[in-house]
Amino acid sequence: MRYLTAGESHGPQLTAILEGVPAGLALCAEHINKELARRQKGYGRGRRMQIEKDEVKITGGVRHGKTLGSPIALVVENRDFKHWQTIMAVEPIDDEAEVKRKVTRPRPGHADLNGALKYGHRDMRNVLERSSARETTVRVAAGAVAKRILEEVGIRVAGHVIEIGGVRAEKLDYRSLEELQAVTEESPVRCFDPEAGQKMMETIDWAKKNGDSIGGIVEVIVEGVPAGVGSYVHYDRKLDAKIAAAIVSINAFKGVEFGIGFEAARRPGSEVHDEIIWSPEQGFSRRTNRAGGFEGGVTTGMPIVVRGVMKPIPTLYKPLQSVDIETKEPFAASIERSDSCAVPAASVVAEAVVAWEVAAAIVEQFGQDRMDLIKENVERARRYAKEF
Ligand SMILES: Cc1cc2nc3c(=O)[nH]c(=O)nc-3n(C[C@H](O)[C@H](O)[C@H](O)COP(=O)(O)O)c2cc1C
């Protein structure tokens, strides 16, 4: 499975084309809209999230509530476009005043300057319209389709926030993924620990008041993936590597770790590797899951546990120095409107991109074309692993 997206932040719409989704998967707009709404929630988000409720239109690949096996086309309109029709017009415009309103002041930390250098743009709107995280809307839509595939084969995905602006969730004693999902869904910062969640919100308020922004860490857990998914035979077949790339491809994500992650550098091997156990009921299993569900790029059958670190949002009210690309004059980059923290929303994006990679691996390994055959084959793989 693969997908491409197109569309600008203030253009008419965002589009995603999903190829390779198996036939016979129950899918309707509601499955996707539910996830789009989750992405739009979150403490610290700006006005756009409130004015613009995203809704998907499925314009190809689904008939009578079931996928056809043909490419799936998803469209999300930018409702704000009505205010941008001239600035973002596809056809040439002759309104001189609008043409002159170029963005010539690059923001440190965003793609503005590098993008302009790369494509030869003197109006950096041509860069920021696409590098904006608005694009993650349709990545979440694609992830919602992936989640449907995973649901059919008994695989569950949950994401939550474990750190914002240096405040870390300490109490993470959830008993099941369902409990983690239920609690974090009610938290404005998607945090399981209510005390930490409260402090996170206070830190976001502090950032907002000071015209600053803050980042954090999100975690995604995938349960129910059979052992043996992915491969160790080539770099581009390792499933942990694909998931790592997917996480770092999210706007503002700068690092990724599995299981105990970077902590592994500080511990001896005896406190890092997961001992292998066996029982007639479970077959092979692990005493611990410090590896976060992978050895050799292949799933162990334990939950996949992956974390991503998000840097603070680059657009700040508080000025940072930059240089105008036309006048070459230094100026303090300040703007009118931005979020101060998007970590809760980013945890929904992280769920989506991880779900896509896992679903793609399942489809590739267990049957490709038909959902019913994939389901049978996944069950067969589970039985095989148990009896191995
Ligand atoms: C959900 C989400 C929302 C974001 N919102 C903003 C925003 O409002 N303003 C901003 O400057 N950057 C925002 N970003 C981050 C930028 O898109 C990102 O920093 C930029 O594309 C440069 O890419 P890089 O940080 O990955 O190098 C957001 C990122 C995510 C994941």
Automatic annotation (TrEMBL):
<feature type="binding site">
    <location>
        <begin position="130"/>
        <end position="132"/>
    </location>
    <ligand>
        <name>FMN</name>
    </ligand>
</feature>
<comment type="similarity">
    <text>Belongs to the chorismate synthase family.</text>
</comment>
<feature type="binding site">
    <location>
        <position position="337"/>
    </location>
    <ligand>
        <name>FMN</name>
    </ligand>
</feature>
<protein>
    <recommendedName>
        <fullName>Chorismate synthase</fullName>
        <ecNumber>4.2.3.5</ecNumber>
    </recommendedName>
</protein>
<dbReference type="InterPro" id="IPR000453">
    <property type="entry name" value="Chorismate_synth"/>
</dbReference>
<keyword id="KW-0521">NADP</keyword>
<comment type="function">
    <text>This reaction introduces a second double bond into the aromatic ring system.</text>
</comment>
<dbReference type="GO" id="GO:0004107">
    <property type="term" value="F:chorismate synthase activity"/>
</dbReference>
<feature type="binding site">
    <location>
        <position position="45"/>
    </location>
    <ligand>
        <name>NADP(+)</name>
    </ligand>
</feature>
<comment type="subunit">
    <text>Homotetramer.</text>
</comment>
<dbReference type="InterPro" id="IPR035904">
    <property type="entry name" value="Chorismate_synth_AroC_sf"/>
</dbReference>
<feature type="binding site">
    <location>
        <begin position="251"/>
        <end position="252"/>
    </location>
    <ligand>
        <name>FMN</name>
    </ligand>
</feature>
<dbReference type="InterPro" id="IPR020541">
    <property type="entry name" value="Chorismate_synthase_CS"/>
</dbReference>
<dbReference type="Pfam" id="PF01264">
    <property type="entry name" value="Chorismate_synt"/>
</dbReference>
<feature type="binding site">
    <location>
        <position position="39"/>
    </location>
    <ligand>
        <name>NADP(+)</name>
    </ligand>
</feature>
<keyword id="KW-0057">Aromatic amino acid biosynthesis</keyword>
<feature type="binding site">
    <location>
        <begin position="311"/>
        <end position="315"/>
    </location>
    <ligand>
        <name>FMN</name>
    </ligand>
</feature>
<keyword id="KW-0288">FMN</keyword>
<keyword id="KW-0456">Lyase</keyword>
<comment type="pathway">
    <text>Metabolic intermediate biosynthesis; chorismate biosynthesis; chorismate from D-erythrose 4-phosphate and phosphoenolpyruvate: step 7/7.</text>
</comment>
<keyword id="KW-0274">FAD</keyword>
<keyword id="KW-0028">Amino-acid biosynthesis</keyword>
<feature type="binding site">
    <location>
        <position position="296"/>
    </location>
    <ligand>
        <name>FMN</name>
    </ligand>
</feature>
<keyword id="KW-0285">Flavoprotein</keyword>
